Amino acid sequence: MTDEELAREKALAHERAAAAETHGVGASTFRTPAALVLFAWACVGIPLAWGIWITLQKAVTAPFSFVFPWISPFHDRLAPEARLARSVPLTQPELHWTEGEAPDQTHHTARWRSESGATPPKRVVLADDRTTADMAYRLACEGVGLLWRGDFQNARQLLQAITRRVDKRPRKPVESMLEAFNQHRQIQSQRARILGMLLIPFDAGHGISLRRAPDARQACEEAHGPADEPYVASLRELLGLIGAFEWRKKGVEIPALDNRIHPHYGVFSPLRGEYIDLVARTPMPRGSVAFDIGTGTGVLAAVLARRGGKRVIATDMDPRALACARENLERLGLSRQVEVVEADLFPEGRVSLAVCNPPWLPARPSSPVEHAVYDPDSRMLRGFLNGLPAHLTPNGEGWLILSDLAEHLGLRTREQLLEMIEQAGLRVVERIDTRPTHGRAKDADDPLYAARSKEVTSLWRLAAAA
After folding, report:
1. What is the CATH number of domain 251-464?
2. What is the pLDDT of residues 49-72, one digit of tens each?
3. Could you state, in order of their start, the residue ranges of all structural domains in the chain?
4. pLDDT digits (tens, 9 = 90+) for 3-38
5. How much is the pTM?
6. Which candidate among 63, 209, 254, 283 keeps its CA 20 to 30 Å from the CA of 328?
């Protein structure tokens, strides 16, 4: 090859390299018309065809998506948690254990049920009337579940014996009420975990086949709904469920109503009456409609209706609370006067009075049943305050019912609360205080007595800032 040919070949090589760098592909790709057509189809035709396909799919499936949601092409419009719920199947936790001696061992599986959200024990052993309290306590502390096969009443006595051993544990000295609160919650969590290791087998339909077992089928049915298969749950949770069922039948006396409120399982019971009395005696602003935000049992909505509120709208997000409030208001003859609706805090509209009794402690709940006590990051409190101005009439008021226990525990300061109120565009019209009368406020043995003995419950009358 001559020097001239070599130079020409080098020039062509440089052109190919430049073309490859410009187009991101080898320069040889564009040497034929067919290659150019294929490249154009890849860049334009495929996306165009895909867009036509999606459009046709929407046109065909949209009329049926309300019946067959899994064929809906609008999956991308769902909230992230809804998309996750569709993509991840819901599974019920299970409990596994073996019975008998090798080589005749049999393996068993049952559905695990826990209202507190506790995970099933990884190791399970059988226990009966021969199991000693010391052995049961040791195994429970190690996280071993004890599936009871003996007499039911003996299981209750064993649980009491384990409880006495748990409560004998010494507490470490603390330097502040905040440390005492955190330690108390940690101890309570450990206590619940240990006491939750004594397990009871249930038949389908919530029956218990143990000797001298109570008939808890109605109590379980009202709390959990029907059970079409056997399951296992902790004895401690069962006893709490039975106690709640008795409270529901008996009801809680409410002097302001001259009647009783019947709390359902999992709904906060109005045993502390001082906040109800605050609502019952505070002068109401003029107006025909009131909101009860986070109604629970419906007790405050009933008080407002009895005091002359022509129409009260009570809101909640918990299905148990909604059912409980409706049942109580029906029993009191107030179902026409009070409307119970599912809503996240406020319903639509403006009113002359909006009442809210949020959870009083700004801490994270460790189980679903604690949501009535703990309000993480004061979310419900902030939500009520921030949404209040947009739902009040010009002369309307918001009544915030709140204990100052969080302040005495070091969880929140009075200055922080006042700042929340001011930042929400509100002003304090008046604060009406009362002292709680429950037993723990006077129990010097309570680890949080120093804070509980100073507790004050207040009704804050709030209005839009000028």
Report:
1. 3.40.50.150
2. 555 554 444 343 333 333 333 333
3. 17-87, 107-245, 251-464
4. 555 445 545 444 444 444 434 434 344 445 554 555
5. 0.77
6. 283
